[in-house]
Predict the 3D structure of the following.
Amino acid sequence: MSIFPPVRTNFVVLELDRQSRPAPAAQPQQAQNVDVEVLRRSLDQALEMVREAVTALAGEQANAADTLAGSAERVEQIAKSDDIQSMQARLVEEVTRLKRISIERRTAWDRTVGEFQTRLTRLETQLDHTRREASVDPLTNVPNRRTFDRTCRDWLQPGRHGFVLAMADVDDFKRINDQYGHAVGDKLLVAVAETLGRSVRADDLVARVGGDEFAILAGGLTLAQAERRLGAVSKMVQEACGLVVPAGVRPSISIGLAECSAGDTLESLRQRADAALYEAKRNGKGRLATKESPLIRDLLNPR
């Protein structure tokens, strides 16, 4: 049984005054441009490494050709000699010279390869870091809005399993953040993210999509099953949050649920989940509300 009284709303977009809620964390175009610029610089570095490797190989090949040509000339001169002992001594000297050059070239080449490997490892680490920055929220260490949008669209592709979208919002977060400081607010958000992450299955997704707003994608659940599960999760989140805020403060979260339906887009599914979330807050906060799947005609003719 859900710990919250279920609230079912009609398929009408509920408009609320958003001024009382903190503004969602922006995903500015400038940040996207920075990510692209970092990736472009990394690719430029990789191309430069390839050019240097080709140049080194070409130079090594040219040096080897010169060495062999010089050795061939000396061997021809040795062959013209009539002094057997002199021929033997000069041939030994030539073989010794070739061995020494071979060792020197091998040592230099190993050093060059080692330098390239070090630079390549550094570049791979930089690319991994850039990819992580582009997909993970730095404060809560859960996927960000960009990752949520991409994953939700993938899950909405034909042939994929059904799923439920839950939008969770920390009640009165702005008041708590303003009254007790950003440090407490940050701890509160981290506690929410960590508890949600521990409470879902490995294949589900928890993402921070706004200032104090989180999205949960739970696969293979009906609306009723998700309502029962997330009702229990909501209580766990409230208990965890109580440990990071001053005594007497009792943070709560409101949750809005919507089940994906044939013909849904990210926007239509998110709209229903948001509508359910707003209704939960209207009914006293710390509650869970659901939004029934629309009819096909509603999706084809949105109001």
In short: The domain at 7-15+144-300 is CATH 3.30.70.270 (Alpha-Beta Plaits). Residues 1-32 have pLDDT under 50 and may be disordered. Strands lie at 7-9, 163-170, 205-208, 213-219, 253-259, 288-291.
